[in-house]
Amino acid sequence: MIIYISENNPDCNSVLNLMDKLEVRYKTKNVTKNELYLQELQNEGIFGTPATFIEDRRYPILGFQKEKLKVALGKEDDRSTINSSRSKCGGYGN
């Protein structure tokens, strides 16, 4: 899994904290520190962070969508379907 992140972005921190809590292995690509990573992301038509690319999914998960990330990783709990419409990330749909 690759997570594109940027500096001073609370949603990026939330995604990374969730991955650590779920004990998921990931690689980060900081677009603030490395322009090549920014170009990679923009070549995919994505202009915001975080963007989480999970190997077996065709499209990345954009923003901090906790339940969507948990489901994609097979880490959802029994209540995930109840709260799935309550995304805290503005600008990105479920």
What would your notes on this structure say?
- The chain is an alpha+beta fold.
- The chain has one domain: Glutaredoxin (3-Layer(aba) Sandwich).
- The protein is 30% helix and 14% strand.
- The chain has 3 helices and 4 strands; from the N terminus they run E-H-E-H-E-E-H.
- It has helices at 10-21, 35-43, 66-72; strands spanning 2-5, 27-30, 51-53, 61-62.
- A 4-stranded mixed sheet has the order 2-1-3-4, with helices on both faces.
- A hairpin with a 7-residue loop joins strand 3 and strand 4.
- The radius of gyration is 13 Å and the shape is globular.
Give the strand order of the largest sheet, numbering strands 1, 2, ... along the chain: 2-1-3-4
Strand content: 5-15%
Structural class: alpha+beta
Counting DSSP H or I runs of 4 or more residues, the number of helices is 3
What summary fits the major beta sheet? 4 strands, mixed
Q: Encode the helix/strand succession as letters.
A: EHEHEEH
Radius of gyration: 13 Å
Name of the CATH architecture: 3-Layer(aba) Sandwich
Low-confidence stretches: 80-94
Strand runs, count: 4
Per the principal axes of the C-alpha atoms, what is the gross shape? globular
- CATH top level is Alpha Beta
Domain module count = 1
- Average pLDDT reading: 87
Summarize the model shown:
With 94 residues, this protein is α+β, with helices and mostly antiparallel strands. The protein has three helices and four strands; from the N terminus they run E-H-E-H-E-E-H. The protein is globular and about 35 Å long.
Which helices and strands occur, and which strands form pairs?
Elements: E1 2-5, H1 10-21, E2 27-30, H2 35-43, E3 51-53, E4 61-62, H3 66-72
Parallel strand pairs: 1-2
Antiparallel strand pairs: 1-3, 3-4
